[in-house]
Design brief:
The protein is mostly helical. About 80% of the residues lie in helices and about 0% in strands. It has 7 helices and no strands. Helix 2 runs antiparallel to helix 5, helix 3 packs antiparallel against helix 4 and helix 6 packs antiparallel against helix 7. The two termini are about 35 Å apart.
Amino acid sequence: MSYPLRRRLARELIGASRQNAPMRSSESGGRLLWLIALERTLRGLLLVAAGIYLLARSGANFGDIANHIARRLELDPQRPFIRHIVAKLGHLKRHEVQLFGALALGYAALEITEGVGLFYRKRWAEWLTVVATSLLVPLEAYELVRHPSALKAGGITVNVLIVAYLVRVVRRKSG
């Protein structure tokens, strides 16, 4: 095999292996994508833990648990907001808790899929993240209008910025 042919083959093999290699945070343009991948993966893992907990403890009285946590955090359980949360959680039925647990696990699967796919620089993961995040923006906007808060405004802003960034990344790769 001639030297130029070996070099070209080596370049193609290295390029192919880089496409399947995990992204490094130091790569140009990859730092933000890496952070998004990390955030999605961590959120997915937290949702797995929450889903498993809810399914394992579906018969528990979550009102009592919330009341106990509020007291441990030195929050006054007689404040209207805390009392409202404790009452709502206390009225959850077993099948509702199981449904929330199953939904948490399903959403966790989506988040982890997005995170791992972004980490490995897969184009489908970029599109999946764009679509999944975009679908939630109208619901977040509705909630923000219904019950405004700085946290909700920050959340929707971050999600819109992530969608805009990923659309730019995908378009750049297409062009």
